[in-house]
Structure formats: structure tokens, C-alpha cells
Amino acid sequence: MPFVLPLRTLKPFFLIPQQWLPRRCIPHRYYCSKLASGSVAPKKTKEATLHKFKSQISSGPSLQDFVRGVSDNKIPVFNEEYAEKHAYLSEEYDMGKARKVCFETYGCQMNVNDTEIAWSILQKKGYQRTNDLNEADVVLLVTCSIREKAEQTIWNRLQQLTAMKRRRSKTCVPMKIGILGCMAERLKTELLEREKLVDVLAGPDAYRDLPRLLAVAHGGHQASNVLLSLEETYADVMPVHVASQGCSAFVSIMRGCDNMCSYCIVPFTRGRERSRPVSSILEEVRMLSDQGVREVTLLGQNVNSYRDTSEEQSCSSNLTQLSRGFRTVYRTKQGGLRFADLLDQVSCIDPNMRIRFTSPHPKDFPDEVLQLIEERANICKQIHLPAQSGSSQVLKAMRRGYTREAYLDLVENIRRIIPGVSLSSDFISGFCGETEDDHHQTLSLIREVGYNVGFLFAYSMRNKTHAFHKLQDDVPAEVKQRRLQECISVFREEALKVNASLIGSTQLVLVEGESKRSASDLCGRSDGNVKVIFPKEDVAVQPADVNTAPVSPGDYVLVKVRVDHSVKIVRPHENMRVLKDSHSC
């Protein structure tokens, strides 16, 4: 929303030299002359008047004549200092002035990272952070639009916050409510105009503008910026990481998506793919390592399609390699540093720091990525492999770029190169045109692969998507729910088998903190991203050592799973990072 200054504060924007004050220079037939009406001026007089007019136009005022304080013989040079000095907003205008902001984050890990970016920007402007809604001057909801249920959660929360805002005493600073992220871009009209529940809207690419938007809101106006960018990666913004216990952190490496799957809203809420420069990613990971962070998860909507073309030497003519049997809806890209190059450099920063990544697309797993995961001890042997459906017909309608057979071939190749790898996946039940046979093919795929973690949902049509424009949401809601429950049931059966195979094995677990189930237990995650709960007890500092020490978040412990589901905990050797030899970087 444009910012309007009160009329009394306006000052002249330019000074006009005396010689350029308005002069009447109008064709002869339109002004009154001293000649008698109906008389005709001599031809020479007309020519002289026309020549005078052309002379004035050709030697008219330049830009410098309209800029205040610039001499007639000096052309102003634009620079940041000049722009700041003469900006239409004062330097103090967008400062937080110790206002307290409360964030509520919903949805995926990218939204967690977006929260950290937004907080970094506001913190530099003098805002303070609070988790207490009662003392918050600003409440910002970082939102998700991937499914209807996620959006409904936000609508319900906005009603609650609006009621709280109205109850607040008039002697207090009025609470401002803001929506950040995907929902801001997708539902801007409904949020600002129809429902009028929010004061500020900022899309995923507009977080730099938050201080100004909040300043406008504090002035009593609604403010919005939901423009998408082809370049914004926030590469120069160092997120303020707020992970619990400080032992893990998310690092965004790319934004947006080019895959255009027919069911997905992401390309329309987060824009096209663009990758953050390698140098800025490495700088952030080094900083996290220095802070004692023990696990970093690289983030992106299609994280393994990472392609940095910011460096001149990286602009080669090599085409991007896809998984065998996979294709894209866009022309094959070429040049740039690929995901394998980034993963290689990140894993070398700190051998004691675990590296994970999410969310990948199955098409972007060439052998070089898989071989690197197998070679590097600190790259977790766990891969998220979203299938979405087990039916080739449904996959075609989804525009996923592969068949059931190609997907199973990829699974076989992954397990051949990375023995013991853990796999997780996403599935959608009840997509447009899905038949009972299609559904049973999905059930059989879940059984055949055997995932240890899964994310399963009923299909929810989204506006703007290819499916919205071209397909019919023809599977009844009750059928979707039945199919979803059947998928969940089969998945749990197979996951139980996968997890049962871990009995008797020794797992390297990164301790995250106290278990939510019991204060006498700790919890952590294995290399395969399996959650492990074990007793809180002191363990030997070194093997066969009588000295013991308590286990703390950020520690690695070796946990042996017994047949009776109990565990034995051992602290690993100081140089024993994993249960195999480490590959040198």
C-alpha cells in the first residue's frame, strides 16, 4: 500500500531557475495580438516566432534543474548515501523501537527457516522477540498453503487472534497481526479486503520489506507486499537459528520449484527455482559448526536440483543429469555447480556434523549423488523419496515425470549403492481420476519398497494449479478418506517390519533432549532418521573407563537395541563418528 505523507510536511521537490519560469508560447492564431482582428501577420514574423519556440524547446531544462541543491553545471550522481539522506521515509521510520514480536510457524521446514530469516531482519531494526502473546505488539504467522486443512488452521487462528486484539485494553499498544509465507501470496485479496483480519501481508520473497510494512501498519494502514522474485535467495541474510537445545539447524540452499506437478501450489506461492551461492551456504554452515551445532539439514522445495550459476567458472555447458528413466516438463538445464558439488563441500566443513537434506525429487538422484552419500561418513544414509502414487496412470496425470517401474528401478539402484539406507516417502490418496485399481497399486508399492517414515494425505485441490484448470476432482471425500486410512494401515505394517529389523543392531544416535513421554528418558535420532528413546543415565567417558558423565543434547551415543526392546547405551570413541571408516575430504 503506498505511503502518504501528511500534506503539511511536504516541501518543494525542485527549484526552477528564473529563466525557466512558464512562458506563453502559443501558435499565433490562438492568442490575441495588437493587430486588428482578421489581419494576418507577415510571414517573417511567423518564422521568427516558430524559430524562437524551437530554440526554447531544444535548450530546455535538464534533470539537474529539477533536483534541489544541484548547481547548474553539475549533474547529480546517485549513491546510497544520497538516497538515504533524501529518502521519503526518515531513518527512524521503520525502526522497531523495542516493539515485541511473536512468531507462530506452521507447515514445512522451509517455514521454520523463513521464520529465522524474518526474525534476523526485524532484530536488526530493533524489534524484540517474545513467546508470550499477552505482551506481543506484533504477531506474525508463517503459513502454509499446500493443503486446505493447513489453511483452515490459519483461518481459525486468525479469528482467535482478532478476538484477543479487540479485548486488549485501549491503554495498550494496538496489536498488529501479520501473515507471512505461502498463504499471504495465495489469499491476499481474501485476507486484506474480504475478511480484514490482518494488518500486514508479506510473501516468501518480501521479508526484507517487513520493517517498512510494519511501520505502515503502526501508522494505522494495512500493508502488503507479495511480489515473487526470480532472484531473491536471502543469501546475505544470516538467519537467527532458534532450534531447541541448539544441536540442529536448517540451512536454505534454494527457493522455488520448476517441476509444475499438476497438484502442487508451490510454484505459484514460492516462484521459480533459484539457488543460493555456494559461498554463502558454506559461510553459514561454518558459523553453525563454530556455535556447536551437530546436525544441519539443507533445505529446498526441490533441494537436489540445486544449481549455482553465480560464479563465472561454474557456467559450464554440461547438462544436468537426471535419474535413469526420469524426465522433466522443462528443457534440460546446463551449467552451474550441482547438488553433488555442494554436498561435497558442505560435508568437508566439520566431520562431526551430520548432514541431511529435504525435500528432494526422485528425478535428481544421479549416481554421483548416491555415491557421495555412501562415501561420506557424516552424510546421513537416509533419503526421502516422494512417490505420491504407485500407479503409472496417476503419476502421468500428476505430471511427475516417471512411471512406477522407473521409481522402483531407482529404489533398487539406491539400495545397491547405499546398503542399509533408510527410505521415506509422500503419498496422496484420491487424486483426480484415481480408480480402485490405481489405489491398490499404491498399496502394493508401499509393501514392495518398505519405508520407515511416511507422510500420507488425502488430495486437496488448490487454485491456480494444472489440476484445477484441466482435471476433475472426481473422487468423493469419503472415498479419499477410506483410501488414505488403508494406505496408513499398510504403511504402519511395513514400517513395523523395517523397524523390527533394527533389533540387535547398534545405532549412532544424536541426542536431541528430554523425551516428551517421560522426564527419565532422553530422545534422539539415528543416522536413518529413526526416533530413538532411551533411559537418561550416565555413561562411560571412554570404553572400559570407570569414570562416567551425563549425556547431554548434542552428544553422540551408541545405542544397542535389544530383543526385549530395551537399549544399552555406550558413548562412542572420541574419533568414532560413525560405525564405519570415515572418508577423508
From TrEMBL:
Catalytic activity: N(6)-dimethylallyladenosine(37) in tRNA + (sulfur carrier)-SH + AH2 + 2 S-adenosyl-L-methionine = 2-methylsulfanyl-N(6)-dimethylallyladenosine(37) in tRNA + (sulfur carrier)-H + 5'-deoxyadenosine + L-methionine + A + S-adenosyl-L-homocysteine + 2 H(+)
InterPro entries: Elp3/MiaA/NifB-like_rSAM, Methylthiotransferase, Methylthiotransferase_CS, Methylthiotransferase_N, Methylthiotransferase_N_sf, MiaB_methiolase, rSAM, rSAM_horseshoe
GO molecular function: 4 iron, 4 sulfur cluster binding; metal ion binding; tRNA-2-methylthio-N(6)-dimethylallyladenosine(37) synthase activity
Domain (MTTase N-terminal): residue spans on this chain: 99-219
Keywords of the record: 4Fe-4S, Iron, Iron-sulfur, Metal-binding, S-adenosyl-L-methionine
Boundaries of every TRAM domain copy: 500-571
Keyword Metal-binding belongs to the record: yes
Radical SAM core domain ranges (all copies): 243-497
Obligatory cofactor(s): [4Fe-4S] cluster
GO CC entries: cytosol; mitochondrion
Pfam families: Radical_SAM, TRAM, UPF0004
Any one GO biological process: regulation of protein metabolic process
EC numbers: 2.8.4.3
Coiled coil regions in record: none
Gene3D superfamilies, per the entry: Methylthiotransferase, N-terminal domain (3.40.50.12160), tm_1862 like domain (3.80.30.20)
The family this protein is said to belong to: Belongs to the methylthiotransferase family. MiaB subfamily.
Name this protein carries in UniProt: Mitochondrial tRNA methylthiotransferase CDK5RAP1
Organism: Myripristis murdjan
Gene name linked to the record: cdk5rap1
